[in-house]
Amino acid sequence: VTERTRIRRSPDRAVHERGVLDAILDAGFVAHVGIVDSGQPYVLPTAYARRGDQVILHGSAASRLFRRLAQGVPACVTVTLLDGFVYARSAFESSMNYRSVMLLGEAVTLNGDDELDALRVLSDHLLPGRWADVRHPSHKERAATLTVAVPIVEWSVKVRAGDPEDLAEDLANPPWSALWAGALPIEQHFGTPVPDQHVAAFQQVPSVIAHRTMP
Ligand SMILES: Cc1cc2nc3c(=O)[nH]c(=O)nc-3n(C[C@H](O)[C@H](O)[C@H](O)COP(=O)(O)OP(=O)(O)OC[C@H]3O[C@@H](n4cnc5c(N)ncnc54)[C@H](O)[C@@H]3O)c2cc1C
């Protein structure tokens, strides 16, 4: 924990176990990456994967975000998993259950075999089992791609779980004490695979896609 990543607001929701950080990163697919360009903050959603102590990001070599990341500008990466809505007895205490990560650092650009390995890790995270089957990126495609790694060094994790935190007076006094309250969990699952127009009628959906489950 650094001064920059010490959770001040609701510090009881701070989690310091590295395993929890890894579990959140491994369960998510989209990171929001913030940089400052000419004094203006920009926060953009992008795919990511964790590789050990790094968060791997890749994007177009023409992307401002990726060009700035490759230059090593200070970056802020967040990942949020929304676990549910919390229905309290007051509007003020109504809330969300979540697991969220914030990572500060400077990205390093990956090249050569290291970059290809990072692209494999990204593919394995987003599309498990697919890397073995797909055509790997060509020289031209590699040249059009910037792949960077943000080191997992300076980070924070904040988790909210469980019941509403209603005021004692709302729990004790009607009409609010009679109001239903609790949490409505959010569960994500995959739908039915939809073949594209080039798939032959006899082709089966690969098992890794047909039987894929949420992490
Ligand atoms: C899905 C979701 C919904 C939320 N909705 C609200 C809302 O409506 N209103 C609201 O006030 N807050 C909300 N929060 C909490 C919000 O993210 C901040 O934690 C809170 O606003 C306190 O901000 P702060 O600048 O005072 O944080 P501080 O505690 O001053 O932040 C200091 C450091 O703590 C760490 N930190 C703070 N928040 C987080 C976080 N969420 N995840 C990881 N690290 C963190 C960072 O390293 C940060 O630099 C929500 C969070 C999530 C994930």
How would you explain this protein's 3D organization?
This protein has about 220 residues and is an alpha+beta fold. The chain is about 20% helix and about 35% strand. It has six helices and eleven strands. It has helices spanning about 20-25, 65-70, 110-125, 140-145, 170, 205-210; strands at about 15, 30-35, 40-45, 50, 55-60, 75-85, 95-105, 110, 145-150, 155-160, 180-185. Strands 1, 2, 3, 6, 7, 10 and 11 form a seven-stranded antiparallel sheet that branches. It has a four-stranded antiparallel sheet with strand order 4-5-9-8, with helices on both faces. Strand 2 and strand 3 form a beta hairpin. The longest helix is centred in the middle third of the chain and has 15 residues, at about 110-125. The radius of gyration is 21 Å and the shape is globular. The mean pLDDT is about 100. Flavin-adenine dinucleotide binds next to strand 6, strand 7 and strand 10.
Largest sheet: 7 strands, antiparallel
- From the N-terminal CA to the C-terminal CA, the straight-line distance is 27 Å
The unreliable regions are none
With helices defined by DSSP (H or I, 4 residues minimum), what is the helix count?
6
What ligand species are in this complex?
A: flavin-adenine dinucleotide
Q: Whole-number average pLDDT? A: 98
Strand content range:
25-35%
Q: Which class best fits the helix and strand makeup? A: alpha+beta
Give the helices and strands as they follow along the chain: EHEEEEHEEEHHEEHEH
Total number of beta strands: 11
Looking at the structure, what is the overall shape?
globular
Percent helix among the residues? 10-25%
Radius of gyration based on Cα positions: 21 Å
